Amino acid sequence: AAAELKTFPLVGKGPFLCTQAAGGSLTHFAHAGTNYALDFRCEAGTPVRSVCDGRVIDVRAANTCGGIDVDNLYKWNSITIQSLKDRWYLFRLCRPWTVNSHAPPAAKALLLGICFDYVHLSADGMTVKVNDLVTEGQIIATSGDVGFTP
């Protein structure tokens, strides 16, 4: 049996409306890496926490553009965490978190195990770096309005 996701990644009172689900027709259908993504509406600056124990394998913090413009597609800031558990369901989320890759989902799962990408983050709100070990519930960043953010 696969492990159950127990920690919601956004910290605060909420509610956090799911604005686009897996296979969403706005942006989640065009690329295999975003097909299973979930988007949640939250204020910029909302604390984001890790949903698993894991190792940070990628941090991207160079982007500042945001809004509804095709030029902003895939121009987000992100943190990728490789789960230390070996029995996760492939679960992807975005805005502010997603499991996302330019490789097909099955290839990423085989190469890296299960990874979680946290996307649309504030560049100056990241609190982790590559190779850091994180624990489930640890604050890793704050949400931003970066990338294609309708």
From TrEMBL:
It comes from the Eukaryota. InterPro entries: Dup_hybrid_motif. This is Uncharacterized protein.
